[in-house]
Amino acid sequence: MRTKITLITMLLLTVTSFAQPIITAIYSGDCSGKPRGIEIYAKGEVDFTLYKIQNQANGTGVAFADRSIDMDALGTITDEFIYVIRNSGEFSDTVTDFAAIDGTETVLYGADVAWVSGDDAVRIVRKSDDVVIDFYGVLDEDGTGKPWDYLKGYAKRIDGTTPTGAFTIADWSIAKNAFKLKGICQDPDAAILSSVTDLGTYSTVALSVNNSKTTGFSVYPNPANNEINISNSNAIASFKLIDISGKTILTKNNIGQNSKINIENIESGLYIIQLIDLQNNVATEKIVIE
Question: How far apart are CA 103 and CA 94, in angstroms?
């Protein structure tokens, strides 16, 4: 018999009181990967001279040290978003496609580190002892086709979650292909990327257990007990239930636009639902199973 987990228990997140840099978003557009960049939030008064940011390209064959830059140029920043971007041209692309970005933001330029293409892991490391402060992705794994793949889309940290030094997929809203055929570079009349999701939205306070970011995608009830109802604007080619370690617990294929998924035999806990539709769009949502 499953142990019952209350909603209140799942919402009680440990909030650290010390200052720290937090990776809050990684984005990669549909114009040869542009616009692309890494969003970091300075929680409290953060001395960035203590840190470096690194990128493991394609997960294999490239060491983090090969794509690494010190963050000294940022100095000390307090309660503010900063952006790590390849060059001024790609920052201009970001300003154009995201309504929340007006060009006055603090930017750290790093040609290799900010070259994020969906399958690249990113981490922030303390320089004095190489302790990992925050991590997105899986070490030495090519992210292509993996649950954490954000190609032509984004990965955004869920409100209220904070770094542990390890990658926890349940802390992220991930939407591969969410930016496909969108963005000013596609067409002057095309929808800008912030019509899908915007930057600068992360909050250290959890506001909701519903983290769906994709239009037309809904999961209920949440928390769930015996079954999950799934609906999507497009037919669903693949459904996966993933635990917080990244292990796939349940898979269903070709379930249409609306379906009921039996979860009677699933252990209680916190999970990620991943949906892939027939257009290869990927959406994720955190769900509590009681």
Answer: 9
90 and 37 Cβ atoms separated by less than 8 Å: yes
Using the Cα atoms of residue 148, residue 151, residue 152 and residue 155 in order, give the sign of their dihedral: positive
In DSSP terms, which residues pair with 274 in a beta bridge? 240, 284
Q: Which residue type is seen at 174?
A: I
Question: Sign of dihedral through CA atoms 278, 271, 158, 66?
Answer: negative
Q: Which tokens sit at 45?
A: 């008064």
Residues carrying CATH 2.60.40.1260, the chain: 19-207
Mean pLDDT of 254-271: 90
Share of the chain above pLDDT 90, in %: 48
Supply the CATH classification number for the domain 209-290.
2.60.40.1930
End-to-end C-alpha distance for the chain, whole angstroms: 11
Output the average pLDDT for the chain: 85
Stated pTM of the model: 0.71
- Residue 42, beta-bridge partner list: 21, 80
Q: What span, in angstroms and rounded, lies between the C-alpha atoms of 41 and 1?
A: 42
Cα distances (Å, whole numbers) of residue 29 to 186, 200, 208: 10, 17, 27
| Percent of the chain whose pLDDT exceeds 70 | 89
Residues 110-151 have pLDDT tens digits of 988 999 999 999 999 999 999 999 999 999 999 999 989 999
d(Cα 2, Cα 206) in Å, to the nearest integer? 26
What are the start and end residues of each CATH 2.60.40.1930 domain in the chain? 209-290
